Amino acid sequence: MINLDSKVPEGNLSEKWTNHKFNMKLVNPANKRKFDVIVVGTGLAGAGAAATLGELGYKVKAFTYHDSSRRAHSIAAQGGINAAKDYQNDGDSVYRLFYDTIKGGDFRSREANTHRLAEVSNNIIDQCVAQGVPFAREYGGTLANRSFGGAQVSRTFYARGETGQQLLLGAYSSLNRQIKLGSVEMYHRREMLDVVVVDGKAKGITVRNLITGEVESHSAQAVVIATGGYSNVFFLSTSAMMSNATAAWRAHKRGAAFANPCYTQIHPTCLPQHGEGQSKLVLMSESLRNDGRIWVPNIVGEKRDVNAIPEEDRDYYLERRYPSFGNLAPRDISSRSAKYACDEGKGVNGGRSVYLDFADAIKRIGEPAVREKYGNLFEMYENITAENPYKVPMQIYPAPHYTMGGLWVDYNLQSTIPGLFVGGEANFSDHGANRLGASALMQGLADGYFVLPYSIGNYFGSEKPEKVDVKGAEFKAAEDSVNASSNKLLSINGKQTVDDIHRKLGDLLIDKVGMSRDEKGLKEVITKISNLREEFWTDVKVVGKSEDINMNLERAGRVADFLELGELMAVDALDRDESCGAHFREEHQTDEGEAIRNDEEYAYVSAWEFEEPGKWKLHKENLEFESVKLATRSYK
Amino acid sequence: MKEQNINLTLKIWRQESAKAKGNFEEFKASVSPHSSILEMFDELNNNLEKEGKDPIVFESDCREGICGTCGLVINGHPHGEKKKTATCQMHMRSFKEGETIYIEPFRAKAFPVLRDLMVDREGLDIIQQAGGYTSFNTGSAPDANAILISKETASLALDAAECIGCGACVAACKNSSAMLFVSAKVSQFALLPQGQPERYERVQNMVIAHDESGFGSCTNTYACEAECPKGISISNIARMNRDYFVSNLKLQNV
Ligand SMILES: Cc1cc2nc3c(=O)[nH]c(=O)nc-3n(C[C@H](O)[C@H](O)[C@H](O)COP(=O)(O)OP(=O)(O)OC[C@H]3O[C@@H](n4cnc5c(N)ncnc54)[C@H](O)[C@@H]3O)c2cc1C
Ligand code: SF4
Ligand code: FES
């Protein structure tokens, strides 16, 4: 039975975390070595947590399916990371960062968690600088900032367009130091396929060695899942090719509630699809919206060359509808507006893309200054499209990018399975119904460096450091279930490939559970996804064997989970009969097309308990707002 | 964006395992000029899977040139002929109708082939573990602006820090040396104030780990720089050599 106790500490919002840390149980330094922690994933959240837990003296085992922990998907983040340093003296503060984040999330996140995120944001920047992360600097040698993703203060720290890479390499370096010191044991090329629960507590994991195919069991007194988001459920997204939901999903099937699966973010500035062979979508950093202007031709069927379209025949739709935020309107609004423009037939050449134009910026600050700011992004664009964005406006279109939903966690980032903790994009914790730009990196590192190491210590404070035997019945049962599932997949021998079915799932989801949703579409798509799941289990073809390198089998297992998760996304979207953040229900909008939230009935977190594939039980965590007043999110 | 497909002949390296003998297998492909080379592989593999045959094993993840997972030798060049791009950033429009393309794994003693185009690059991690960090514990850092770093220094350090750890430099080098990779990390820290306390110890430890992991020595042929997808400059190797020299003197004094 699932019990959603958020364990939010008493006291004033700004004192909760400090008090909580003070009240935590401590583990005697001599005892720390006796506690084992498993960390799955070595992105910002996982590498940060593994390194810090190692520094504290725990025995850590870290796992990743990559060949090196440096390759986690965090590496691809471009734009930057937020912190409330107020180095620019423009009125930023912990409270303002907190408020922006909670408002950006359309008042669907837990106040206390979001406030803590803002509180520790400053420590993150200190930590990264000490690691040698080469953030951008001013001439005087202080750190530079930019305003990013709809923020009206400059609080974003960055390293060219490679912030994620530099932050991850920082976390990787701390992790490497612990590996060298022997406190972290690193397991590469292992895919976690199950969580082992003994007497109601998480005590280990089952992994498949991706080189030998061997199924292995590992035990510990606590398990951290930091395995990233599930945007790849859409097949085409900005996520890396291997990103998947399997670790989180298998934990869900062992009893961890899955929260807000329908909150998925579709990023407005991505490259449009080039054709059927497309394998993933490429993000162009949102920072481009600081200087680029978004528009579509005003005339359906516009045939003129883009540079020959006069001003009066262009619709700068964001500037027109949102005069104060303009091109910096939040992601969900920007994305939906692009979709509508293209639905109306005003997309570039009638297709699915809009212009992002730098002509005015070049006029205003000159090409060299534009190059200085965005040089590598422009290069990347030209390399992919063979068009020069200094001369011709870029073309962009929204793409699935981030998932706010994830495993439900309490204030300690503990899931509904005691001993199972979840960090980074894999949890649902801090962003409500919509995430602001540059706050995922912040959250990953906050969870990894500054929250999990404390809350796991607190958990150990009341646990006995007893070793768990991997020969126990629960471990054996998990291994058997992993093997059975591999054997089943390999024996179906149907006609469709894994990718064929994954593409079908993606098409269904982007159409009905994408930028806008409605009751009829959701009901239809639930049936269709459930049928597609049947189709998968009777008609998929997976080649090779399991005792071997077999990427086909790896993908098959991930898509099997996506099929279940995709259905839950639609179920959740149907339950949430309101519009909020990235979840836009056609039924709930003003005459001007603005989202209408329903705080009376829907100010809750949906936490779904797994019963069987296609069947879940809903639990609700009511969101209490003690410090902020719920307001209509307006970016007019 | 509809343009005619390009027809190509592919000679792709197939190899069962590290010990097995490999050979080129020929495939025909018809591919959109807008597709990336890895998207061509996806299509090829999808067809192989449909026929019940083993797909070609190759690695990739971000497909944006930043994670360093991909790495193929295309017509003799690690990451292909185009400068400053990773394999995943290569588009089919750079090939001509009717062309034959040779595709092989990165070859180096320190990178055993695991299957087909997939190699083991663990040696690169071992080098980083030997000293690619500043030693301090989470939570003990001073305020970020307490350390002033000039814009120029930060930018130079970032030039070096951009290395994606792909190993193309090793595959390009006739000696299989990873010195460009090592020097990138050594330089990042040598340039920054945060890296000073362990500067000389770091270069010693990383160079020793490099030599012990089966990478060869650097004889300044500069093949690495030419193939590096991030344009890491060989001036980093010169900087590292100076530091290494100083570190040897310091060791002798101790
Ligand atoms: C293109 C792009 C640009 C972005 N730009 C920004 C930005 O500018 N600012 C910002 O704040 N955010 C940005 N984001 C979002 C941000 O990068 C991610 O949300 C964040 O990095 C996620 O970190 P993570 O540690 O939770 O997970 P990840 O970095 O995704 O790491 C997941 C880890 O888990 C491992 N793993 C997963 N499943 C398993 C399994 N079953 N077994 C073993 N290992 C497993 C993986 O190997 C990997 O190590 C961007 C995202 C994308 C896609
Ligand atoms: S130096 Fe260049 S080629 Fe070598 S690993 Fe780094 S990015 Fe790759
Ligand atoms: S796949 Fe990431 S660099 Fe090529």
Label this structure with key terms.
heterodimer; A: about 625 residues; alpha+beta; Flavocytochrome C3, Chain A, domain 1; five-stranded parallel β-sheet; five-stranded antiparallel β-sheet; 17 helices; 19 strands; about 35% helix; about 15% strand; B: about 250 residues; Ubiquitin-like (UB roll); Fumarate Reductase Iron-sulfur Protein, Chain B, domain 2; 2 domains; five-stranded mixed β-sheet; two-stranded antiparallel ribbon; 8 helices; elongated; binds flavin-adenine dinucleotide; binds iron/sulfur cluster; binds FE2/S2 (inorganic) cluster
Structural commentary:
The complex is a heterodimer of chains A (636) and B (254). Chain A has 636 residues and is of the alpha+beta class. Chain A has a domain at 267-401: Flavocytochrome C3, Chain A, domain 1 (Alpha-Beta Complex), CATH 3.90.700. Chain A contains 17 helices and 19 strands. Chain A has helices at 16-23, 29-32, 44-56, 94-104, 111-131, 163-181, 246-253, 317-321, 331-343, 359-365, 367-385, 440-460, 473-492, 498-512, 519-539, 551-575, 599-602; strands at 36-40, 59-63, 81-82, 156-157, 184-187, 190-198, 201-209, 215-219, 222-225, 258-259, 264-270, 293-297, 314-315, 354-357, 394-403, 406-407, 420-422, 604-612, 615-622. A 5-stranded parallel sheet of chain A has the order 5-2-1-9-17. Chain A has a 5-stranded antiparallel sheet with strand order 11-15-14-12-13. In chain A, strand 18 (604-612) and strand 19 (615-622) form a beta hairpin. The radius of gyration of chain A is 24 Å and the shape is globular. The mean pLDDT of chain A is 96. Chain B is elongated. Chain B folds into 2 domains: 6-115, Roll (Ubiquitin-like (UB roll)); 122-136 and 145-251, Fumarate Reductase Iron-sulfur Protein, Chain B, domain 2. Chain B has 8 helices and 7 strands. Chain B is of the alpha+beta class. At the A-B interface, helix 3, helix 5, helix 6, helix 11 and helix 12 of A face helix 1, helix 2 and helix 3 of B. Flavin-adenine dinucleotide is lined by residues 40-46, 63-66, 72-74, 76-81, 163-164, 190-192, 226-229, 238-239, 243, 246-247, 283, 401-402, 424-426, 438-441, 444 of chain A.
